[in-house]
Amino acid sequence: MTPEEMTTRIVRYGELIPCKTAFIDAHTPGSDQKENFTIIGGGVSESPDQHVHIADQIGFNIGAAGQPPKCRNSLHSHRTAEVFFVLKGRWRFFWGRYGDAGEVLLEEGDIINIPTGIFRGFENVGTDYGMIMAILGGDDAGGGVIWAPQVIEDAQDHGLILGENGKLYDSKKGQSLPSGVNPMPLLSEAELANYPEPTTAEVVPHFVARYWDMMALSDRQPAQVIGADAMLRDRPGFDVEFLSRTSLLEGAQSCSRNCVLMPMRGHWQLSWHGGHTVLNPGDTCALPPGLEHSLTPAMTGEASCFRVIQTEDAAGPTQHRR
Question: 166 or 258, which is more confident?
């Protein structure tokens, strides 16, 4: 693989292109300043304005959300995995029908594998612009987003209507629902009753991993963060590993399936037959199956990197085993 070919498989943090109208709450006060990024795969954006950096289907999606302080993402649910790690800032994740069933604060480097089938939201509670990186299960990310009824109602009050076709229509731009397309129906009370309301004590021990715990477990071997026998035991269609300065084996290595590198801290030199490059925090690199490569810290100091590997498991509901 030439350096030019590898360039097409790397999305640099500084070159990310945001979409500010990705979802139904784009005009809702408190949520109207968020930015959505689709890095690999089609993502779950409801807007035709969403830029896709790498359209390849690799079994899972990579995205990101950037938000200024006090900006939140409204309550929604997914049918497949939604995993976040905090790249920048301090974030509050909350869940439940009205967002009051439980919550957890995450610092830089922490990761959360939010259980499927519950309403969840997140908010930047730091003092600066924050960024969270996302891994979504499946090539179609579970068929889109399921919104809490009050989110759809609030959006309509501010000019955005979600069609049953999954597309947004903005009355502020003179748009309206096309003939034959009905508004997205609200979930009924019977349907809402099927959405669990787990407590903080039920979620955090099994679905959250802290940065410094992963650092400690990554000495001399990659820390297994999400997987069948990992810190967070799940099989969402991908495994997540955490690499630090002391965890990598010497020499070339390869993955038999799609693999994505997502540096958290430090600078990492990626070398392969045909070239080399440096990956920095916030960069995303999609390695093709079978490519022999080496990955080593390029400088002294703290270094950490998440590695996401496609598995044979079908994307679907959380398969947590206590």
Answer: 258
Residue 142, pLDDT score: 54
Domains and CATH numbers, the chain: 3-208 (2.60.120.10), 209-310 (2.60.120.10)
pTM of the predicted structure, to 2 decimals:
0.94
More confident residue, 247 or 322: 247
Burial grade of 120 (CB within 10 A; 0-12, 13-18, 19 or more): buried
